Amino acid sequence: MSRQLADLEILRELEPIAAANVNRHESVATDWNPHDYVPWDRGRDFAGTGGIDWSPEQSQLSDVAKAAMVTNLLTEDNLPSYHRQAAKYFSGDGAWAAWVGRWTAEENRHGIVIRDYLVVARGVDPVALEQARMQHVTNGFAATAEEEARHQTDFLLSVAYVTFQELATRVSHRNTGKACDDPVADRMLQRVAADENLHMIFYRNIASAALDLVPDQALEAVAAVVENFRMPGQGMPNFRRNGVLMAKHGIYDPRQHLDEVVLPTLRKWRIFERGDFTCLGEQRREELAGYLENLERQVIRFEEQRERRIARDERKRDVQAI
After folding, report:
1. 30: how many CB neighbours lie within 10 A of its CB?
2. Which terminal Cβ of the chain has fewer Cβ within 10 Å, N or C?
3. 231-273 pLDDT per residue, tens
4. Neighbour-count burial for 215-231, b at 16+ CB within 10 Å, e otherwise
5. Positions at the binding site for Fe cation
6. Which pairs from 3-9 meet CB under 8 Å and 24+ separation?
């Protein structure tokens, strides 16, 4: 029979793993400074200090790059909510507290550097950006009422979620850098993406240890996250519009979510090769497999619809050019 442990017991048993991974992270993480990644020579005063306020023609970013940069930045801006969530589900002392503190400090740099870039390079309207930040951070990020009702707010679910979310954020940042068509932005977002990858590895290693400790419980958390995954940007202004635009142009789309985030992580955990699940765990694994098969079909439909839209848009441009 698979072990069933409460959160506090799991935290206590996994703390040595957490300590080892905090040490590992600190040994491989690169110290960097946001100011080294910002093109300060492009900067000029705004009207408040006698200069000129922002206007659309000042931006060198495409509509896609603007949408992706704003979405990524507002996601990073909501760090206070993520810190509260982490502090809620992780222990307040020892290795867990050390990790939450380190992770929070590193994540804060991401918001600093992206905002500095956008303001200095006049990539987006800074007034609208600040209004969106105020709205999004005020609303915060937390489990939905449905998730609360399903008890999907415990430690194992939190660790499983941030594993997938950190990897998804890495993909989004990396592709946003390419879409900016600016070597400075690309270099900056490569640096941010590298941090996100190290954060993902920490959480992935903790989840792996949890699968060894309480296989059925950890599998249930992993499956619940995969089947109900939502990006942390949910609820930010224009999130749906920007998300559609990002998916349409390959910044973060369903194929990337499945092939670059979900499946590699499940393979790393050997979810479909493990032999330590009980009958209940085996049944849950079969349900997850069925969900993934259906998700693949949804991805194919999305790709087909996107190809038809692209072809239709090209035909319209050809007609307008005549």
Report:
1. 8
2. C
3. 887 778 888 899 999 999 999 999 999 999 999 999 999 999 9
4. bbbbbbbbbbbbeeeeb
5. 76, 107, 110, 166, 196, 199
6. 3/213, 3/214, 3/217, 4/214, 4/216, 4/217, 5/213, 5/214, 5/217, 7/89, 7/154, 7/155, 7/156
The closest of 35, 19, 39 to 27, measured between CA atoms, is 19
> Please, is 124 exposed, middle or buried when counting C-beta atoms within 10 Å of its C-beta (0-12, 13-18, 19+)?
buried
Residue ranges of the annotated binding site are 76, 107, 110, 166, 196, 199
How many whole angstroms separate alpha carbon 64 and alpha carbon 246? 7
- Quick: pLDDT tens for 124-145: 999 999 999 999 999 887 654 4
pLDDT in tens, 77-126: 988 888 888 877 886 779 999 999 999 999 999 999 999 999 999 999 99
Of 111, 98, 118, 126, give the one whose Cα is nearest residue 34.
Answer: 111
Amino acid at 283: Q
Which alpha helices (DSSP H) does the chain contain, by range? Answer: 7-28, 63-77, 79-89, 94-120, 126-139, 145-149, 155-179, 183-213, 215-227, 239-248, 254-256, 263-268, 279-321
Domains in the chain with CATH codes = 7-321 (1.10.620.20)
Q: What is the pLDDT of residue 248?
A: 92
The per-residue pLDDT for 142 is 65
* The token pair that represents 235 in the structure block: 């609820």
**What is the predicted pLDDT for the residue at 318?**
66
* pLDDT above 70 for 30: yes
